[in-house]
Amino acid sequence: MADAATIQRLRAYLRDLSPRARALLVGEMESRLAAGGDLAGAELVLDELRLLAREHEVAAPRVDHSARLFFKPLEPFLIDGPGLHRHPGRIARGSLDSLWAWIQRDILPDDAKTLDDNVQAALRTGDTAQAEYYVRGFQDRVSSALSDWLRQSETDARLRRQMLAQVGTQYPVQDAAALHCVLRSRDGLDSLAARLPPEMPNLVSDQLDDCKTMIERACVRDSDLYPFSLLTVMNRLVAPWQLIRLGVKAAGSDTAARVAETPFGVSVTIVLSELERKVERLRDDLRQGRGATTSASLKAIHDSSRGLRTELDLPVNSSWGRSLSALRGQTADMLRLEIESMPGRVRRLLRPRPNADIGPYSALDPTEVDETDALVAFVGNCRNFANELAINEMTQRTCGELQHYLDSGTQGLLDALRQSGPGERGFRLSQLDAAVRLCATVFGQDYATQLGKAVEVATAASVAAERKVQPKSA
């Protein structure tokens, strides 16, 4: 039993969440519990969330357990985002609502209603196994119905147009085909996942051979399974770009044309698609001012790009080569805007200012200092990946400019501090504190420590000078 203090801390934390975030948390926790998950303290958290929902008159959403259980086989292949680009073997998570509505309305409406009633009844009695049994049978019937729809739509233009209008996703035919493929092969994909190691740091030697053999066995009767089987392996790779090694292995050559001729050639397309998603995520992070949190994205983009270029003989005029060049160019353009803005941000923060421009007892905005330091660290991090991301010259020039400015500009700030009066001393100190922090990021802690000592000496000199000019009391 949680003590009162713990409950109070929990309630305070949950109150700080937005109503939407609380509603989403309720839905996710109820879904996990319905699927048989064991969440420590779940009932306590749910009770508090429901209480807050009632207090704010925000109803927690009723979880559609039937849909969640139905789409469970798709979990390894879902991607977040709007799904504006087609990725082999992937379905946008946001497309599931449209697919479920289509199934309920146009594919098996009566069966869907019966399924929902049966699943809810089973879950009310805590019989998760029975609920899963009902869902499994429904998955089989949907798979069979989708098979008929897809086959007929290939020759019936009217039916194909109808399907495009009804499904309501960005790629309706492809999404329906992916759902059909995963549902009919869910056991084989589960078996493949069960045989794979939980984590593969490096896909080489025997492990590479084993993965190739397992994929070939899983796809022996259905070549459409290759993208899903490859993604199942990719989910276990510490370095996902290494998936292309299966294509090279199958071709017995690193020549792109030879790799493309094999069923494993889609591995290269998958890695390029994943790289495209990483570039899009980096763009979103930079637009929202989260440059300081992009280290992992930068490394992933760098490693994927280098892996594609070094492990494949990839002609620049091939479709794969053009895709890679375009993604590297997009990355360089995005980073250029951030990198080239950094010196100006630092100069605006640390520029010496006349006393008339300084408000009495003012100081630099701490948030602006934090953001500038984060940007400096971000540019420094870019240097680690500069060659592969085609930003080497740019980062060298920008970092050199920053180093020169910090090395030469701090003396002027120290001189201004020595001559400052009480009204502007706080602002001068805040500038030098920011300079010390930036120097620690750029030059290292030893340099920053020396500058910090110089700041202490200059501060003491300023205070001593002020005391000399103060009139003696009578």
Write the layout of secondary structure elements.
Blueprint: H1 4-16, H2 19-34, H3 42-55, H4 65-70, E1 78-79, E2 91-92, H5 96-107, H6 109-124, H7 128-153, H8 157-167, H9 172-184, H10 186-195, H11 205-218, H12 226-234, H13 244-251, H14 256-260, H15 266-287, H16 295-311, H17 319-350, H18 366-383, H19 392-418, H20 422-442, H21 445-469
Parallel strand pairs: 1-2
Describe the structure.
This protein has 474 residues and is mainly alpha-helical. It has 4 domains: 4-63, no CATH class; 66-184, no CATH class; 190-314, no CATH class; 349-469, no CATH class. It contains 21 helices and 2 strands. It has helices at 4-16, 19-34, 42-55, 65-70, 96-107, 109-124, 128-153, 157-167, 172-184, 186-195, 205-218, 226-234, 244-251, 256-260, 266-287, 295-311, 319-350, 366-383, 392-418, 422-442, 445-469; strands at residues 78-79, 91-92. Strands 1-2 form a two-stranded parallel ribbon. Helix 18 runs parallel beside helix 20 (422-442). The longest helix has 32 residues, at 319-350. 32% of the residues are buried.
Give the gist of this structure:
The chain has 474 residues and is mainly alpha-helical. The protein has helices at residues 4-16, 19-34, 42-55, 65-70, 96-107, 109-124, 128-153, 157-167, 172-184, 186-195, 205-218, 226-234, 244-251, 256-260, 266-287, 295-311, 319-350, 366-383, 392-418, 422-442, 445-469; strands at 78-79, 91-92. The chain folds into four domains: 4-63, no CATH class; 66-184, no CATH class; 190-314, no CATH class; 349-469, no CATH class.
